[in-house]
């Protein structure tokens, strides 16, 4: 395995570990600090069996928690029942974005012949948000028609509402349903659609 592949594998592993940690904390509403390592070890064993064989598992946990805390995604709270780790609002938003990367919109058996178009105008001072929106749309499977105009053939309104809330771009992004797009042959080919499925 070459250097670039190793680096890519490390990034994927780190992202998966962080997503698992955030998901577990979110699911239980807060995790006792005393249970963090054993609980995570059990869960990771299901998703990554090789993780248990790694002598670096404790180091990975500690590094991931330090990164998540440093990024403001989790916080530690002292209560009468003990110390708990919880997600910040920023952590919840990050988890939803990580889930978007694996999100697949359920495709109906038949295309209704309508196009879902997203048009957005995000100002230059929010360039990083604009880039994240483009990356997310690309990951979901949208096709770019122009720089800030993206197209999808199936109902995705619920997902777009979540995306608007997460990126705080409610007024900057418009969801359009169109009966036709001029010269849409390339789009239909991109989505493997006939004129009317």
UniProtKB/TrEMBL annotation:
GO terms for biological process: DNA-templated transcription; maintenance of CRISPR repeat elements. SUPFAM superfamilies: TTP0101/SSO1404-like. The keyword Lipid biosynthesis does not apply. GO terms for molecular function: RNA endonuclease activity. The chain crosses the membrane at residues 20-37. Coiled coil: none annotated. Keywords: Antiviral defense, Endonuclease, Hydrolase, Magnesium, Membrane, Metal-binding, Nuclease, Transmembrane, Transmembrane helix. Residues 109-186 form the Transcriptional repressor PaaX-like central Cas2-like domain. This is CRISPR-associated endonuclease Cas2. It comes from Candidatus Nomurabacteria bacterium RIFCSPLOWO2_01_FULL_41_12.
